[in-house]
Specification:
The structure holds 2 protein chains of 2 kinds.
Chain A: E1 5-8, H1 12-21, E2 25-28, H2 34-39, E3 47-50, E4 59-61, E5 67-70, H3 75-80, H4 82-87, H5 89-96, H6 101-106, H7 109-114, H8 120-123, H9 167-173, E6 177-181, E7 187-191, H10 192-195, E8 214-220, E9 227-233, E10 244-250, E11 256-261, H11 271-275, H12 281-288, H13 300-314
Parallel strand pairs in A: 1-3, 2-3
Antiparallel strand pairs in A: 4-5, 5-8, 6-7, 6-8, 9-10, 10-11
Chain B: E1 2-3, H1 27-31, E2 49-55, E3 61-67, H2 69-72, E4 77-82, H3 83-86, E5 105-106, E6 112-118, H4 121-128, E7 132-137, H5 144-153, E8 160-162, H6 165-171, E9 174-182, E10 194-200, E11 203-208, H7 213-223, E12 231-234, H8 250-262, E13 266-269, H9 272-278, E14 280-281, E15 285-293, E16 299-310, E17 331-340, E18 345-346, H10 354-372, H11 376-382, H12 401-412, E19 425-426, E20 429-441, E21 447-453, E22 459-463, H13 472-484, E23 491-495, H14 511-533, E24 543-545, E25 548-551, E26 554-557, H15 558-561, E27 567-575, E28 585-597, E29 603-613, H16 620-639, E30 670-675, H17 699-711
Parallel strand pairs in B: 1-27, 2-13, 11-12, 14-18, 16-17, 22-23, 29-30
Antiparallel strand pairs in B: 2-6, 3-5, 3-7, 4-6, 8-17, 9-15, 10-11, 10-13, 15-16, 19-20, 20-28, 21-22, 21-27, 24-25, 25-26, 28-29
Classes of the chains: A alpha+beta, B alpha+beta.
């Protein structure tokens, strides 16, 4: 771990301004991912701004009948919230599929969206990784690499890492919106769809946040009802990242929304694929994973995605 | 005491304590945090500095330069030792195959090449990250599949050849020729390797975590070219080993070298992300099994051929070990290939040989039973043997494999199993049942102990035996209490210190039976000493009961005997050659029910039963604990565990506990363990055998067979992850 300085700033606008002012500064909230990465020197912030005192830990109703989830709301709190459980059950189900009870007690809503990939080549600083060191190459894409867990769509020749969040996959089906505050004190909203970037040639640039910009909340539109389920497939029954996960909202008329986790650098959903839902899992996945570029080791994720969706559709 | 003939009727046959269920005597210390593990022993020596390893980031080649200048100006820096300054060191032990430290050669990824010492752990870690290393990279050989292609062509000398395998196989009415694959496994024990080292007056003390105190003492002395008498090793508590702590590892060498150079105590733990590549692993195997039988299911020909990766001079994984003796059959062929590869060091992991071998053999037996249209349990029963099939004059000392199968089948409800592969479905889940046999050799090793009877009447047992979570403290206390006629509460067991008599240590499931036999021998010596003091010629005419020694018209309190000062006795049990006239092994049968999701292929083990034949069970509580732990490890091997190889760079990329998955609680269902009430008089005076490795043997194959039975998809390539089933699963 490199040496760093640390301060607490309660006011979000002041925190954002400070983060923009100090080059190499980062926010810290739960720290469940950041501290691990700092110990491995994958993350090397020179300054940490602790925003835990900012009061952004409330869940409130919006005038539209939705929910505004403060950036610091812990995953455990969010998953157990009565309105979330009643009106947005796909979110509760996605949350409790992630990490462990202990981690969910610490992990925050904003931090969850910002967590880094679990690609093993990202985690070993001796290996080439364009996400960790831009321009160094991608060990995961060379002959003989271990790529079973990695992405199959939305990837690039520079990076095939996935985004590991379950929560974000649930949020994606709910058309969640990220609210931020910029270093100049302006607020802005970013649709979750636009929030995570695909790697292209710059896999180190993972999201739409500008330097210093801080997430203040995630808002959910008014509930849309329907059957809301989340199925996470992995090699053990708990405490593992998804091989494939499926979030599904299904309306009584057969229409609905589908998002996939474990396959792409962001929660993977498209309107065209949603439209295929009345035609069954094969039609949805054919549309959603059209253009997939799996490796030999992870090509199974295509069939697995279709089968996992089919399993959810077969449930009453 | 030499154990030189089968045990007759003895005091353990009327035991009050040995064989009775008893919770761990050190349990309260462990659950309250008072049992200090190596890295936490802050009190043993003042002023401990922290060492952090620097490891190679290439798999094969030479170090051309190690630049420590940046590290040296880091905060808290106190010193550094590099492999180049030390130069090549003597190999520590015949069974260490990778150099642990020293010289410019890199033999595998994450080989230790320097240690940076600082005042705090964080400072040491940060400074270590500043060390810059230049290499000359060399090509290595990392692909077992390619090695197998070559090995199949060569005519390796068989390990054994009995009769005419080829002829009998060609003539057999029913035959199987199958190829099976097991991946490398990592021990993934909870406690990382850790050592505190301190030098004083040319003598070295290490507080460490090891399974084998004396091996480590000798190895460290050889590596550092010093007299073993000047090395002290202390390892009272070990947070799991599974073979990873059998041999000297880099933590001890780095700590010792750094402490010597700085003339201050230094502690070093191997960080978790380094352990999988720096230390040892269970080799991957590719195995070919051929079985021929007549229509009635009697095996007439059996061949087992296996290849595994190893560093030069290594032995590879002896995956064929059990096949030499497990099942009958007149014509037999065993071939063992080693593939020299430049991966990290392949070495022993829990039940080396049998664990991997049975993963293959017990699938093959299931496949063969199916070809014969036989109950796979019945097929195994028919092919039981009571003698060494390679040498029929040599009997098994005590083999109750058939009873394991029959009793297990009855308890499990085997008759109600799903008979048609893929034929039983509950909603979205396919239900299957599987069985497998278990076999593991039960060696015994010389083991010593010292007994000190205190004036208070308490007994202190001292031996360098280790307790790696197995229950050594408890079974040793039980043994001493039994032999000396004391309650267990009156016995203090002190373990893991090289100042104590050399024991068998913990490995190869020999620890429990051997170490308790050694304590028995030392107690017998104490009884003899007491008899002498009482002027009684025949010690066996005395009874030791309830804290008294009685007989010959005498009745004295034991405490009274030591009133003038403690009485010390010491002895070592050794095992005579007669044992080799038998095969001394342990046996078991595993029964498993699994559910496989019909669409996704996700697998859940729903219930497990193990029936074990291990001679006298010294303590059913700790023995059960070992067996269920083995069953968990077997589920891991069946379903998820794999140290995947990057065949380009020659290392294991998923080298932490997020990348290398072991079962979590939610993966493990109700586990039932039954110990057959058997005794093996050839094994030890207590008629006991090992059990810690038996619990793992065969488990994965039982899961694999149940998965086949559930799905109709036969997977011969571990782990049985879902993508291997998906092509054969239903579409709705």
């Amino acid at each position: 771990m490199r040496e760093f300085s640390y301060e607490r700033i309660a006011d979000p606008a002041a925190a954002a301004a400070r983060a923009a002012e100090v080059e190499g500064a980062k926010f810290i909230a739960g720290g469940t991912n950041l501290l691990d990465l700092m110990k491995l020197e994958i993350e090397t912030p020179v300054h940490l701004i602790d925003v835990n005192g900012s009061g952004l830990d409330k869940i409130t109703e919006t005038p539209e009948g939705g929910l505004r989830i403060g950036a610091l709301v812990r995953n455990t709190t969010l998953s157990a919230h009565a309105r979330v459980r009643r009106d947005y059950p796909v979110l509760t189900r996605a949350l409790v599929a992630g990490a462990s009870g202990q981690l969910r007690n610490k992990a925050t809503t904003a931090g969850n969206l910002l967590q880094r990939t679990r690609c093993p080549y990202f985690y070993d600083t001796a290996q080439a990784c364009n996400k960790r060191v831009p321009g160094s190459g991608c060990s995961a894409l060379t002959e003989g690499a271990f790529s079973r867990q990695l992405g199959i769509i939305g990837t690039s020749d520079a990076c095939i890492a996935t985004h590991p969040s379950d929560m974000a996959v649930g949020l994606r089906t709910l058309d969640a919106v990220v609210e931020t505050i910029t270093p100049t004190g302006m607020t802005r909203t970013i649709h979750l769809e636009e929030f995570h970037h695909l790697p292209g040639d710059t896999p180190d640039q993972e999201n739409a946040l500008m330097p210093g910009e801080m997430i203040t909340a995630v808002t959910l539109p008014a509930p849309i009802g329907g059957q809301q389920v989340y199925h996470k497939v992995r090699d053990r029954a708990s405490y593992a990242f998804a091989l494939v996960s499926v979030a599904l909202i299904r309306q009584p008329d057969g229409s609905g929304r589908v998002a996939l986790g474990g396959v792409a650098p962001k929660p993977w959903r498209s309107a065209a694929a949603d439209a295929e839902l009345p035609n069954g899992a094969a039609a949805v996945v054919a549309q959603l994973l059209d253009g997939a570029r799996p490796t030999e080791e992870n090509t199974f994720k295509i069939a697995l995605a279709e089968r996992t969706l089919a399993a959810l559709l077969a449930e009453d | 005491m030499e154990f030189n003939q089968p045990a007759g009727q003895n005091l353990f046959d009327q035991s009050r304590i040995v064989g009775k269920p008893m919770p761990r005597v050190e349990g309260p210390l462990k659950v309250s945090g008072h049992a200090k593990y190596a890295f936490e022993r802050h009190d043993v020596v003042a002023g401990q500095l922290h060492g952090y390893p620097v490891v190679s980031t290439i798999a094969q080649g030479r170090i051309t330069e190690i630049d420590t200048s940046a590290a040296e100006s880091a905060p808290g820096f106190r010193g550094v030792v590099t492999a180049l300054e030390i130069g090549e060191m003597p190999s520590p032990f015949a069974w260490n195959f990778a150099p642990l430290f020293g010289g410019d050669r890199v033999s595998h990824y994450h080989q230790a090449i320097a240690v940076v010492v600082a005042e705090t752990f964080e400072q040491a870690r940060a400074a270590a990250a500043l060390v810059r290393v230049d290499y000359e990279v060399e090509e290595g050989n990392y692909d077992l599949e390619a090695a197998w292609e070559r090995a199949r062509e060569d005519r390796s000398e068989p390990v054994s050849r009995i009769g005419d395998f080829e002829g009998a196989f060609a003539a057999a009415e029913v035959t199987l020729d199958g190829e099976y694959r097991t991946p490398g496994h990592s021990h993934a024990m909870m406690e990382p390797h850790a050592t505190i080292a301190n030098w004083q007056d040319g003598k070295l003390t290490i507080w460490t975590a090891t399974q084998m105190v004396d091996w480590i003492r000798q190895s460290l002395a050889r590596t550092l070219e010093m007299d073993p008498e000047n090395v002290r090793v202390d390892s009272p508590y070990i947070g799991g080993g599974f073979g990873a702590k059998l041999y000297l590892r880099a933590d001890a060498v780095l700590a010792a070298l750094a402490a010597r150079k700085l003339a201050e105590p230094v502690k070093v733990a191997l960080p978790r992300p380094m352990i999988m590549n720096n230390t040892t692993h269970r080799a991957a195997t590719i195995q070919r099994i051929r079985i021929g039988a007549d229509r009635e299911g009697r095996i007439t020909a059996i061949a087992h051929e296996a290849i595994s990766n190893t560093l030069p001079s290594g032995r590879g994984e002896t995956a064929t070990a059990q096949t030499r003796a497990f099942y009958a059959g007149a014509n037999r062929l065993i071939v063992h290939h080693t593939a020299v590869m430049h991966l990290p060091e392949a070495n022993a992991m829990r039940a080396p040989g049998e664990a991997s071998g049975l993963m293959a053999l017990e699938i093959a037996m299931d496949e063969m039973a199916e070809k014969l249209e036989m109950d796979p349990v019945q097929f195994r029963i028919i092919n039981d043997t009571q003698v060494d099939p390679e040498s029929p004059d040599r009997p098994f000392s005590n083999r109750n494999f058939v009873q394991c199968l029959e009793h297990g089948a009855e308890v499990f409800g085997w008759a109600e199993r799903n008979m048609t592969p893929g034929g039983r479905r509950e909603g979205m889940w396919l239900i299957g049942h599987g069985a497998a046999g278990a076999y593991r050799g039960s060696p015994a090793m010389a083991s010593g102990a010292r007994i000190r009877l205190q004036p208070s009447g308490r007994l202190i047992v001292e031996t360098d035996m280790t307790d790696i979570g197995t229950g050594s403290y408890t079974v040793i206390a039980q043994t001493a209490a039994e032999v000396m006629g004391l309650p267990v509460e009156a016995v203090d067991v002190v373990l893991g210190d090289s100042a104590f008599p050399v024991s068998a240590g913990s490995g190869g499931q020999w620890g429990g039976p051997s170490a308790t036999a050694g304590v028995y021998a030392a107690c017998v010596a104490l009884r003899a000493e007491i008899a002498t003091r009482l002027g009684v010629e025949n010690a066996d005419s005395l009874e030791f009961v309830d804290g008294h020694v009685r007989g010959n018209d005498l009745d004295r309190l034991l405490s009274e005997m030591a009133a003038e000062g403690e009485i010390i006795s010491e002895d070592t049990i050794t095992f005579g050659d007669f044992r080799r006239d038998h095969i001394v092994s342990t046996f078991g049968a595993h029964f498993v029910e699994v559910a496989v999701h019909a669409l996704t292929g996700e697998m859940r083990v729903r219930r497990m039963l193990a029936v074990c034949d291990s001679g006298r069970i010294l303590n059913p509580v700790t023995a059960r604990s070992q067996v269920i732990g083995g069953m968990v490890m077997g589920v891991g091997a069946a379903l998820m565990e794999e140290i995947a190889v990057d065949t380009h760079r020659g290392y294991f990329p998923a080298h932490d506990l997020a990348g290398y998955e072991v079962p979590v609680h939610a993966d493990i269902p109700a586990q039932e363990v039954i110990f057959l009430d058997t005794l093996d008089p050839v094994s030890t005076p207590m008629k006991a055998k090992g059990v810690g490795e038996l619990g793992l043997c065969g488990v994965a194959a039982a899961v694999a067979n149940a998965a086949y039975n559930a799905t109709g998809v036969r997977v011969r390539n571990y782990p049985m992850t879902l993508e291997k089933f998906i092509p054969g699963l239903p579409t709705a």
